[in-house]
Amino acid sequence: MKNAVFFGIDGGGTCSRIALTDKQGNVLVRHNAGSTNIYSVTKDEVFNNLSELLDTVLKNAGLDKKDLAAGCLGSAGLGREGERILYREFFDSLAGKDFPVKLCSDAEILLCGGLKGLEGYCLIAGTGSVAFGRSRDGRLVRAGGHGYMLGDEGSAAWIGRTAIARTLRSLENRDLLTQMLPLILRAAGLAQSGDLIRYVHHDADKAKIASLAPAITTAARDGDPLALDILHAGARELALLVKSVTDQSPWIAQRDLVIAGGVMEHDEILVNRLKEILSLELPEIRL
Questions:
Q1: CB 128 within 8 Å of CB 154
Q2: Which among 106, 135, 182, 268 is placed 20 to 30 Å from 117, CA to CA?
Q3: In this predicted structure, what is the pLDDT of residue 210?
Q4: Do 30 and 19 form a contact (C-beta atoms < 8 A)?
Q5: How far apart are CA 192 and CA 214, in angstroms?
Q6: What is the pLDDT of residue 89?
Q7: CA angle at residue 7 from 66 to 86, to 5 degrees?
Q8: The sheet that has 120-125: what strands, in order across it?
């Protein structure tokens, strides 16, 4: 295969990105597209987004599918056998049943890429959340990653959903005082508090709920007591994910932890609180 190239896809709940490389690992071209998480969008949308990623980088590199030698897809919503079967179907149709592709969670590629090794821990807090550990001999542990309806604690979706619920409670004098309502309504494109009921139950998906998180961070920066309490609670939940994977894996010697995701990149209040908790409760962890 004269022009053999390899792809790596980092798939998220909101957006995904691909890099195409040569045999030496030199990046030839990159591209971004929509979600590849089967729990965030439909199966058809996932496969359309994967097709767009691959078709675009091959076209931009002046290559076609016969030049693909192998690849890796690490995506949110891709960590269990039933999920891998669905994604395998796509690559079977794309490149044939014998095409070599590694299918794993986005946490596994973060661990390898972020730590530049095969052993250690990682924590993702983006649209969703998950913690992950891997030993040098390939044993894996995980905590969280159950989706926004069952968990995703500390993630943008959790922050948005929690803020809506607790702001409605605050309006009834059942929670801390807050000035978040106008920020939430503006971010959601709504007119009044009553509109939030239909919005959550009928109109909003995971990504839309997650998109409210920056408004909560803005309120927290201005000292809003409820917003601060939510972000501190989110930090506590993320610390519990880390504690879960470390408790499950005394056989992992490397106690390095890499963190990533939109919340980790843009919410300094939550991240600083997370660091404080980890320093006090898990001092052996190197962040």
A1: no
A2: 268
A3: 93
A4: yes
A5: 19
A6: 84
A7: 85
A8: 140-144, 129-134, 120-125, 257-260
- State the pLDDT at residue 236: 98
**Residue 76: which of 278, 272, 202, 262 has the closest Cα?**
262
* Cα gap 121→107, rounded to integer Å: 9
pLDDT for 263 equals: 94
Q: What's the CATH number of domain 118-287, 3.40.1390.10, 3.40.50.20, 3.30.420.40, 3.40.190.10?
A: 3.30.420.40
Please give the structure tokens belonging to residue 19.
Answer: 């890099």
Cβ atoms within 10 Å, residue 216: 32
CB-based burial, 178-198: b 16+ in 10 Å, e otherwise: bebbebbbebbebeeeeebee
User: How distant, in Å, are the alpha carbons of 3, 60, 94, 95, 168 from that of 65?
Assistant: 11, 13, 8, 7, 52
Q: Where are the domains of the chain?
A: 5-104, 118-287
Classify residue 283 as exposed, middle or buried by CB count within 10 Å of its CB (0-12, 13-18, 19+): exposed
Please say whether the beta carbons of 167 and 181 come within 8 A: yes
Residues of the chain with pLDDT under 50: none
Q: Do 118-287 and 5-104 have the same topology in CATH?
A: yes
Mention every residue, 6+ apart, whose C-beta is less than 8 A from residue 78.
11, 36, 37, 38, 84, 87, 103, 104, 105, 106
> Which CATH code fits 5-104?
3.30.420.40
Q: How far apart are CA 131 and CA 205, in angstroms?
A: 23
- Residue tagged 């796509």 (tokens): 90
Residue matched to tokens 């962040």:
287
The predicted model scores a pTM of 0.81
How do residues 202-236 score in pLDDT, each as one tens digit? 988 888 999 999 999 999 999 999 999 999 999 99
